[in-house]
Amino acid sequence: MNKKKKERITFAGIINSLILGLFTFICVYPLWYIFINSWSSPAAVNRGVYLIPREFSVEAYTNLLEIPGLTSSIGIAFARTILGTLLTLMCCSFAAYILANRDLPCRKLLYRFFIITMYVNAGFIPYYLLISNIKLKNNFLVYILPYAVQAYFIILIKTYIESIPGELVESAEMDGAGLVKVFFRIILPLAKPILACIVVFAAVNQWNTWSDDMFFMQGRKAANLHCLQYLLYTKLQSNVVSTTGTGAAAGAAVKVTSTTLRMAMSFITVVPILCVYPYMQRFFTKGIMLGAVKG
């Protein structure tokens, strides 16, 4: 008769649990702090809100919804995130597959060329002139094309592909599969963990980036092409949002871009990432560990 062994509660186990609990609190509390402050009244926030919302108020979110062009900017943000992530995934994965081919001429030279781009760049002025010369200013493609190929992603995917047994590729080639067919039928399905990592990295980068909007979207032509983050940034900088809340004169401009509005802006920009990450989590750890180990 097997007896269940009771787990012993040791001092080391208690310390480990306390440390893990502390780190969990450090990671979770900032998001909770943003949430409760965004739903509290400005007066309560000024006095301090730390655990639960006080003097419940939707004023911050009401002011956000009144920002002109908010709907279109949300659409642009989602469009650039989805399309940009897909393009980055396809370009980087195919480039990594080519570089992982040991029969590729000048393979090491090309690989070093990609690595050099991680540490050396021409600077912002040549980059700005390049974007202007290829007619990407005030063009939605400026959100996507410059991010299509990224050396760091290529290195991660290449390292992962090299861990796939070469016999699988050889057997597929013996059956008549070409380069493209092997890539889509063999490599991509087996590389799901690292591809999920790239999706997370690329999507977060696309969603959070707004500097390209600030530099390359100017004038009336770009009025409907601003992404959400840049729109919120400009409104926060202006420090004036019109409101029709209680106690304010109709149509008057009131300074409400205090803590509550900043918290509301932060929360709505974080929510999409929080919704996507749990679906990628099961691939994330495995992919980043295997992809980061260089052979």
UniProtKB/TrEMBL annotation:
Keywords: Cell membrane, Membrane, Transmembrane, Transmembrane helix, Transport. It comes from Eisenbergiella tayi. Residues 70-265 form the ABC transmembrane type-1 domain. It comes from the Bacteria. Pfam families: BPD_transp_1. This is L-arabinose transport system permease protein AraQ. Its main location: membrane. It is found in: Cell membrane. PANTHER family: ABC TRANSPORTER PERMEASE PROTEIN MG189-RELATED-RELATED, POLYGALACTURONAN_RHAMNOGALACTURONAN TRANSPORT SYSTEM PERMEASE PROTEIN YTCP. The chain crosses the membrane at residues 12-35, 74-97, 109-128, 140-161, 182-204, 263-280. InterPro entries: MetI-like, MetI-like_sf. GO terms for cellular component: plasma membrane. Belongs to the binding-protein-dependent transport system permease family. The keyword NAD does not apply. GO terms for biological process: transmembrane transport. It is a multi-pass membrane protein.
